[in-house]
Amino acid sequence: MSEYQLYCFAQSGNAYRAALMLNLIGADWQPIFVDFFKGGETRTPRYRAEINEMGEVPVLVDGARKLSQSGVILTYLAERSKKFLPRNDDERLEALRWIIFDNQKVNGFLGPYRFLKNFARPAGDPAVMAFLKGRIDNHLAIVDKRLAGRAYILGAEPTVADLSLVAYLYYPADEFGFDIAAQHKNIATWLGRIKALPGWAHPYDLMPGYPLQL
Ligand SMILES: N[C@@H](CCC(=O)N[C@@H](CS)C(=O)NCC(=O)O)C(=O)O
Prior knowledge:
The protein has helices at about 15-25, 45-50, 70-80, 90-120, 125-145, 160-165, 180-185, 185-195, 205; strands spanning about 5-10, 30-35, 60, 65-70. The chain is α+β, with helices and mostly antiparallel strands. Helix 1 links the parallel strand 1 and strand 2. Glutathione binds next to helix 4.
């Protein structure tokens, strides 16, 4: 048995944050496939009783400890590995600020948008999609501006804030219907930097369940 187990599935950018972190720190880990689409596993009483009362992936298992919320998992792994850690109290708070902004506003809108476009039946209502797209454009522009003149979100080194923000950003452009990297040049450069880190892998290669069988 590996040191860590991660409940996840390939289409989940929320889970990708944790899977990527595990790979980048060289952890001994294995994915546990969660049948989100066909089996509705996160909605089952068993999943909510035994895995995560919030009914979500990712969930990280470390022995007797089970952690959910990718921001918590990233923080836990950073503290344990001493990698991707903010360097001081100010940076720690700054990283937390971006992780919360990301969860709520950046990938917090991108994830549902991509879900409604690709996987929901019926697909998302056009008015809902237009609302989400407006929010997404606004929030990606904020991240792009933040990255102007900075290699990473906090500065010269990558931290958990970067690994949170990349959640959905490596998925194919046709899954969104717009090309994030083509439209935001600082984001594109930053995604390239993270992709060059040893241990980087694409979400479809890192987590089970791709291609999706419905
Ligand atoms: N803020 C959470 C979001 C997790 C999340 O929404 N995960 C999705 C999969 S991508 C999920 O499990 N949703 C379950 C549901 O909506 O029923 C995190 O970062 O871990």
